[in-house]
Design brief:
This protein is of the alpha+beta class. The chain contains 16 helices and eleven strands. α1 packs parallel to α13, α4 packs parallel to α9 (about 220-230) and α12 packs across α16 (about 410-420).
């Protein structure tokens, strides 16, 4: 009884925190089609300016992969009005920080400055869009940077190619099948015109959303946004291609030898629906139920109680068109990956057969409430969430509605979604092994 009261009190407290944290914002568009989202927060004298472009590795040609990620680097090289090598100096000398990242679906750039430097940030991002200098010296320089990144993050990093290998086998038609960093031979043989054409095709105002978040005056910000972005010509927006994958009806088996590891890993991966779907949200709950923390089902069963694994996990890798649900484990030295897979499957079968307990269900609700609060606890998090919900989900208002969706998911839905997607004939089994080891039978 005491535990139930404490759980109820925690739930009510978190609910109050979430309700108090409703994100206010204003959204409008410029005449050139660029979307603008403004979020004011005067808690600290900082302001974030970001632009998210609706271009990722899935928008590349099969023989020209890696371009989206390449541009994440290339567009820091300089502009017509920012000399080569000066971008980061300007940011740091004005008390700011900046960064960028790329996914299969979008590319994101941002700066964080003291609030009195908003105009500078807006000018710099407009320069990146309107006046980028794309020349051979910049391409050659960044080609070397990309190769170093590939070596450190993928080729020479233990288990660094797991996601790439999983994608390669789960997708036959969709561009998700290649890695975000792309193939180095494609970048080596690409011409200057190839890079310039990619920029003209995707780096246009009507393929982007601009977010300003933090301490600023709206009237002033709108004037600067119009001044620096409003005059940029509208581009010809490329229609997104639709790539359809046939359902997986029998187990795909594959192996990959990694020279950087000594302990084999077993991976069970399922192709799942797009991030916009309710089922994708349910799968996120299931992954938390299985492996979020030391009290999660897989950890308690396989690592803590039976002591047959060093590490175990479940990840719902949700994306714009399809998702990947990935389960993985590293066995203890006296146990095999086959044993781990059997234990994982038994836990999945349990979810497919029985409703999770009320206690576990309440725990999941509390976990996702805290995740919502944490993801919106900084201007950086809020800005990226606003851009993401607008660009990939089609509705920035989801920043305030997403938690309600998760809280409406029932235990019955959790069981039904596990039955629908997490079946042994609908998955890839990947033996990710050291070079000297043979794949399991």
């Amino acid at each position: 009884m005491k535990n139930s009261i404490m759980a109820l009190s925690t739930s009510l407290m978190l609910g109050g925190m979430a309700n108090a944290q409703k994100i206010s914002f204003e959204q409008y568009h410029l005449n050139n089609g660029m979307q603008v989202i403004l979020h004011q927060d005067t808690a600290a004298p900082v302001v974030l300016t970001s632009v998210m472009y609706h271009v990722g590795s899935k928008d590349e040609a099969p023989d020209k992969t890696g371009f989206a990620h390449f541009f994440e680097h290339l567009l820091f090289e300089g502009t017509a009005n920012i000399k080569r090598g000066e971008w980061f100096k300007i940011v740091s000398s004005n008390g700011g920080t900046n960064n960028a990242n790329t996914s299969d679906d979008r590319t994101y750039y941002y700066e964080v400055f003291p609030s009195n430097n908003l105009e500078l940030a807006l000018w710099m991002e407009s320069e990146r869009l309107l006046h980028p200098v794309i020349n051979q010296i910049g391409i050659t320089t960044q080609n070397g940077v990309i190769k170093e990144e590939k070596a450190s993050r993928y080729d020479n990093r233990p288990y660094g190619k797991i996601i790439s290998v999983v994608k390669e086998h789960l997708f036959q038609n969709h561009p998700y099948k290649w890695s975000t960093i792309g193939a180095m031979e494609h970048l080596d043989t690409a011409t200057l015109e190839d890079f310039q054409d990619f920029n003209k095709k995707f780096y246009i105002p009507n393929n982007a959303v601009l977010v300003v978040a933090g301490d600023f005056e709206k009237k002033e910000a709108k004037q600067w946004i119009e001044k620096y972005f409003g005059t940029i010509p509208k581009g010809v927006k490329t229609k997104k291609q639709i790539h359809v994958e046939q359902p997986i009806s029998q187990t795909i088996r594959a192996s990959y030898q990694d020279p950087n590891i000594q302990i084999p890993m077993v991976v069970a991966a399922y192709r799942t629906p797009a991030m916009k779907t309710r089922d994708s949200r349910v799968l996120s709950l299931i992954s938390s139920y299985l492996s979020d923390g030391k009290s999660s089902k897989l950890y308690k069963r396989i690592v803590d109680t039976k002591k047959i694994a060093l590490q175990i996990g479940a990840v719902n890798f949700s994306q714009e068109d399809y998702g990947m649900y990935i389960l993985y484990g590293l066995p203890m030295s006296t146990h095999s990956t086959a044993e781990l897979l059997l234990e994982i499957d038994q836990e999945i079968t349990q979810i497919q057969t029985d409703l999770i307990s009320e206690r576990d269900y309440l725990k999941l609700q509390n976990q996702f409430e805290m995740q919502y609060i944490n993801s919106n606890s900084t201007v950086e998090g809020i800005a990226e969430n606003l851009a993401k919900y607008h660009l990939l989900y089609g509705d920035a208002k989801l920043i305030n509605q997403e938690l309600k969706t998760y809280k409406s998911i029932t235990r019955e839905e959790i069981r039904a979604v596990a039955k629908k997607y997490l079946n042994t004939n609908q998955r890839l089994i990947l033996d990710y092994i050291p070079v000297t080891e043979n794949p399991s039978e």
